[in-house]
Automatic annotation (TrEMBL), chains A, B:
<dbReference type="InterPro" id="IPR000182">
    <property type="entry name" value="GNAT_dom"/>
</dbReference>
<dbReference type="GO" id="GO:0006595">
    <property type="term" value="P:polyamine metabolic process"/>
</dbReference>
<dbReference type="Pfam" id="PF00583">
    <property type="entry name" value="Acetyltransf_1"/>
</dbReference>
<dbReference type="GO" id="GO:0008080">
    <property type="term" value="F:N-acetyltransferase activity"/>
</dbReference>
<dbReference type="InterPro" id="IPR016181">
    <property type="entry name" value="Acyl_CoA_acyltransferase"/>
</dbReference>
<feature type="domain" description="N-acetyltransferase">
    <location>
        <begin position="24"/>
        <end position="168"/>
    </location>
</feature>
<keyword id="KW-0808">Transferase</keyword>
<protein>
    <submittedName>
        <fullName>Spermidine/spermine N1-acetyltransferase family member 2b</fullName>
    </submittedName>
</protein>
<dbReference type="InterPro" id="IPR051016">
    <property type="entry name" value="Diverse_Substrate_AcTransf"/>
</dbReference>
<comment type="similarity">
    <text>Belongs to the acetyltransferase family.</text>
</comment>
<keyword id="KW-0012">Acyltransferase</keyword>
């Protein structure tokens, strides 16, 4: 099957949003999705952007029964390692189930690796859920290391309420303007 | 003990580099540190910056026996969640052992939470090593969630050699310009 990998445009956000939701449903975490396509437009396609995104598009003759031709996406941004320097971070990589097995996911991952190397990134990082064995095997077969398994790294998070509490602590305020 | 938390300047990079190395030694991973203070200057203080950094400074009367007054740092950047939006990511938080117990680490963490909320970030994320129990307890006592424990997230990485191999795959090249 022919397909095209290209950089997302602002007008693709509704489709990216549709695929974000599909991925979250697959990960059994759809209740955590709070974002809207309008926010994606603002955060990815305005003056100050927080991410970049690739989309995978198929020709019209292969469109889904709902008429969609955008069948996959890969959202990424740059982070930094104080040990090695610039890192490209793949936040999401998703292909609709009916379009899998055509090399679309692999082609997007390869593009991210190319973009990363062109930007002198020395790592391509991402996260997976430990029960998602097919994905883990796919990534490992291409040389990915599981850092949680190998070195014991855990992902930690403060959510809004905890952030607000921290932000209001005296320790921070006292030294805010010093 | 008095101390000041302020944004790092280009001329602080040698001190930040010294502290990055101290933290890596503490984490038993000093052999992974490839970066230099010149690269930190370029990557954090030029036109296109990949990170921001706070430093903790003590008055001269409290300087270390080597004469240092910069005794801690917190390096951060912005990432993005496709479920919730903007995220502030704390890559490193470190205070020299002899200056711990004065609230310096907590003050830096509070500042990051403030900066994050001012930038409308809905999460403050970071990673810890699973054997680093004092740090995990410290973060959890302030409301941090361990996402690896709770949801099963694993941190994954392609390093340079694997990235190069991916980047050269036909799948990606074929669709590069389409």
């Amino acid at each position: 099957m022919n397909f095209t990998i290209r950089h997302a445009r602002s007008c693709d956000c509704e489709h990216i949003m549709r695929l974000i939701m599909e991925l979250a449903v697959y990960e059994n975490m759809s209740e955590q999705v709070k974002i809207t396509s309008k926010e994606l437009e603002r955060d990815g396609f305005s003056n100050h952007t927080f991410f970049k995104c690739l989309v995978a598009e198929v020709p019209e003759e292969h469109q889904t029964k709902e008429g969609h031709t955008i069948v996959g996406y890969c959202l990424y941004f740059y982070t930094y390692s104080t040990w090695e320097g610039c890192v490209i971070y793949m936040e999401d990589l998703y292909v609709m189930p009916e379009f899998r097995g055509n090399g679309i996911g692999k082609a997007m991952m390869c593009r991210i690796a190319q973009i990363g190397r062109q930007s002198e990134c020395v790592r391509l990082q991402f996260s997976v859920l430990n029960w998602n064995k097919p994905s883990i095997e796919f990534y490992k077969s291409h040389g990915a290391l599981d850092l949680t398994e190998k070195e014991g790294w855990h992902a930690m998070r403060f959510e809004v309420a905890a952030m607000e509490k921290l932000a209001q602590m005296t320790g921070a305020t006292e030294h805010k303007n010093s």
